[in-house]
């Protein structure tokens, strides 16, 4: 079983959203080509789904500004702009994404006391989303992933996939992803490679 995991291709992470990734909307055509290719038995999309006043929001910490480091549940935390609040337009998937072909949506980031970059578990690694168990139940043996943002949610999802799905081949589709910081993207790709994630292009995935 071959699966495609589309990570957080949401309005909030695209230009015009509350936490835009540079060029985030540019990946939608590549993502749709992958979705429509017939190469995948299973297509999953993760969705950042924060309650109002989430603890990772700078607005929840008086005196803190977005992109400063603060504290959340006793641990250092990047303070983000309010984004992907449940049931808001910002939390919706990009309107051009071929969502009708997605088999399963995994929501994350619902606990206000901890952030959740990975589609598999919260950042403190104490609470699982259930995605790993779902993929195991579907007998997935190959997992390709892409989305937003390479240096945060994509990277942590890829690393967790390697750790939590032993025996599954994990591949990162570079051109169907975008990151926030160029240096962070390079570091993320290096770290993924070092942990056994193959770095490929959408052309490779479609071959």
Automatic annotation (TrEMBL):
A Pfam family annotated for this UniProt entry: Isochorismatase
Pathway: Cofactor biosynthesis; nicotinate biosynthesis; nicotinate from nicotinamide: step 1/1
InterPro entries (UniProt xref): Isochorismatase-like_dom, Isochorismatase-like_sf, Isochorismatase_Nicotinamidase
CDD domains given in the database record: nicotinamidase
GO biological process: pyridine nucleotide biosynthetic process
Top-level division of the source organism's lineage: Bacteria
Top enzyme category: hydrolase
GO MF term (any one): nicotinamidase activity
Transmembrane segments: none
Keywords recorded for this protein, A-Z: Hydrolase, Metal-binding, Pyridine nucleotide biosynthesis
Keyword match Hydrolase: yes
Family note: Belongs to the isochorismatase family.
Protein name as annotated: Nicotinamidase
Protein source organism: Rhizobium tropici
Taxonomy of the source species: Bacteria, Pseudomonadati, Pseudomonadota, Alphaproteobacteria, Hyphomicrobiales
Gene name, Swiss-Prot/TrEMBL: pncA
């Amino acid at each position: 079983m071959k699966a495609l995991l589309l990570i957080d291709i949401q309005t909030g992470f695209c230009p015009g959203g509350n936490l835009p990734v540079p060029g985030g909307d540019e990946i939608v055509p590549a993502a749709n080509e992958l979705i429509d290719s017939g190469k995948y038995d299973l297509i999953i999309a993760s969705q950042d789904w924060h309650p109002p006043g989430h603890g990772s929001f700078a607005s929840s910490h008086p005196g803190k500004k977005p992109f400063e480091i603060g504290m959340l549940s006793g641990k250092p935390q990047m303070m983000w702009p309010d984004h992907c609040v449940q049931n808001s337009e910002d939390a919706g998937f990009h309107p051009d994404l071929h969502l009708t072909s997605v088999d399963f949506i995994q929501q994350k980031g619902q606990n206000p006391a901890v952030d959740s970059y990975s589609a598999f578990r919260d950042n403190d690694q104490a609470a699982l989303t259930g995605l790993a168990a779902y993929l195991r139940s579907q007998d997935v043996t190959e997992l390709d992933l892409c989305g937003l943002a390479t240096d945060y949610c994509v990277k942590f999802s890829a690393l967790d996939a390697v750790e939590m799905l032993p025996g599954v081949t994990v591949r990162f589709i570079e051109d169907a992803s975008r990151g926030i910081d160029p240096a962070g993207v390079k570091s993320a790709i290096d770290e993924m490679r070092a942990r056994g994630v193959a770095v490929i292009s959408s052309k490779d995935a479609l071959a």
